[in-house]
Design a protein that fits this description.
Low-confidence stretches: 6-33
Radius of gyration: 21 Å
Structural class: alpha+beta
Largest sheet: 9 strands, mixed
Helix content: 25-40%
Strand content: 25-35%
Oligomer: single chain
Amino acid sequence: MKDIRISLKSVGICALLAGALVQSCTKPEEAPGRENDIVFDHFAIEQAYTLENSSTDYETDSDLTMGCRASLFIPVKFMGHDMTAFRDSVLKIAFDTVAADPAQAAETCFRRTGSEIGYPLKPIVIDEHEADSLANTIESLNNFDGFAEIQGRIAALTPEYVSYGVTSSSYYPRAAHGMYGTWYIVYSAKADKMVSLADFFTSEGLEALPKILRKRAQAMRSYIGATNITAIPSGGNYYINANGNLVFVYQPYEIASYAQGEISIDIEPYIVSDYLTSLGKQVLLNE
């Protein structure tokens, strides 16, 4: 894995990070550790498998194939804070497994995907040139009968917090369509911990949120379509965007049709100020 080190010196953090990530693919920066550094490890892996004994069930000449890929920027440090807990949370939502070696966690996840389809996975042995070609070709997963892909990305970054999203996409062979979803975690430097909605909202606030979200979704109906919101997103799925707004993310099918995809609803913190805890006011309203 490659270390990516960034020093925060201005409010143009997201643009700075995006540029640094692109450059790091070929020439990672080396710099002494500083308290205002952000350090990520870039982890990438791609594997290919056959679904053993699937040819009989699908009446094909050979067993079906499955391509699996993962690409994550794993946090190591943020503004001088140790990010071990954050790293473990990223691996947990990405692979449902925490391991010292991300490759081991990824392999466990890939094989679990195969068992969910109903077949043991047999690795397809490919030479180094073919592996490099697969890893650098966006379309490579389309070469297989099915695929599973996991991508970890930074949703927003400021000196006060980092919001991180993991998107899992999959298509099982011969299925009507694929499935995907994105789950988020938020780390607050002010609180020096990962923060959930329960950290930001009082119990009364959590009860009031569905009605607030439903009202906002109705105002957004012209471009997100009809929705049926009766609860906050499953698992309290949210992040803080670059504007400091709370963004609540519902997965496909959760509140609307599959065709409407993921639905994100943002709420300005001042709208829910009466429902915030003291930590919520500190982080979201700078009070």
